Each structure stands twice: as structure tokens, then as C-alpha cells.
């Protein structure tokens, strides 16, 4: 119990010194992500996963204001899901697999899962290097996230190189495959054209991996 308290105090101390804007979130929407957020929070404390604990708060704050296409119905009213639910679910999927890797690697993996869309979706002046220079995450988290971050204007050759580089890095591979698994659940919200494109890309690059 004492170790858990010390770990929680360590995390809170680091968070207290971060810019409040990076951690701020819409509390009125928290109920939609609360159970998954608290599940991961408990997991980080039990396993002393420093990077994952920081990434959990950063993901909630830096993705605040963005939403998924899917909705949640409560009392007959539809609510758009906060985008961060996707990052949380990708992380939880990997945590629940109990992959046989070291605690240190697991920490990098789960933190990367939580941050996997940040370079693509957050306007970082230094293109995401802020993850380790500003927010104090391990540089390996940034490197993994960078590997799974895709530009929209890739040529076919660049796209092949992109997936090849992911395949060569097991943490990036695990994050990318879990990301795809969760995104497939939301295909019903996409246009027919987008569904065909997504299926084609999955067959071409993901199934071989």
C-alpha cells in the first residue's frame, strides 16, 4: 500500500509542474470515458508504470475537444464520444493481452498506445518532440509514436516504407495493430467508399504483419 501511495504522489508531483492547459479537459464529458480511464489508472499504480501514468493524463488533456464519429445514448439523448476513448481502448486492449515483455517495455508500449495519435492530431511546434522535451515522457515513447504516425500525402513507396518500419519495431507493431483492431469497430460510421479503402489497406498491409 505504501509503495502505491508513493508512486501516486510521485506522479501527482510531476503533473503539478506541468502547464495546466496540457491537462485540462471537459469534466462534463468525463462520465463517457470514466470506467476505462480509471481501469488504466489503477493498472498504472499497481504496476508502477510511470510513463503510462503521465500519458494517461496527457492524452485526456491534449485530445480534449475532439470527438469520435460514434455516439453514446443516455436517457434517449445522443452524446458524441470524446476522441480519447479510442486511445484508452487501444491501451486497455494491449494491457489485457498480458504480453510477455518486461515491465519497462510494457510501460513504453502502453504510454505509446495512449499517445499514438498525438503527432498526427495535436499541433506541436516541434512535431511531437515535446512528448519527451516538454512533458517528460521517455524518448522511446516519442520514437514509437513517430513510427506509427502517417502523413496523408504519402506516395505508394513511402507508404510501403512506413509499414515496413512499423513491422521492424515490435512496440510500434503492437500499437498499430491494436489501433486498427479498435478502429474496425467504428467502420459502420464511415462512408461506403471509406470502408472499402480501409478494408483494402488492411488486406494489403495489416494482414501480412
What is this structure, in a nutshell?
By secondary structure, this protein is mainly alpha-helical. It is built from twelve helices and two strands, in the order ααααββαααααααα. The chain has a two-stranded antiparallel sheet with strand order 1-2.
Count helical runs.
12
Q: How does the major sheet shape up?
A: 2 strands, antiparallel
Unreliable residue stretches: none
Radius of gyration: 17 Å
The total of beta strands comes to: 2
The oligomeric state of the chains shown is single chain
What general form does the structure show? globular
What is the beta-strand fraction? 5-15%
Helix coverage percent: 55-70%
Average pLDDT over all residues: 94
Going across the major beta sheet, what is the strand order?
1-2
Note the gap between the termini.
Answer: 41 Å
Q: Helix- and strand-based class? A: mainly alpha
Write the H/E string, N to C.
HHHHEEHHHHHHHH
Description:
With 209 residues, this protein is mainly alpha-helical. The protein is 63% helix and 7% strand. The protein has twelve helices and two strands, in the order ααααββαααααααα. It has helices at 2-16, 20-23, 34-47, 50-62, 84-96, 103-115, 118-121, 130-133, 139-148, 156-167, 170-184, 192-206, and strands spanning 67-74, 77-82. A two-stranded antiparallel ribbon has the order 1-2. β1 and β2 form a beta hairpin. α3 (34-47) packs antiparallel against α4 (50-62), α3 (34-47) crosses α5 (84-96) and α6 packs across α11 (170-184).
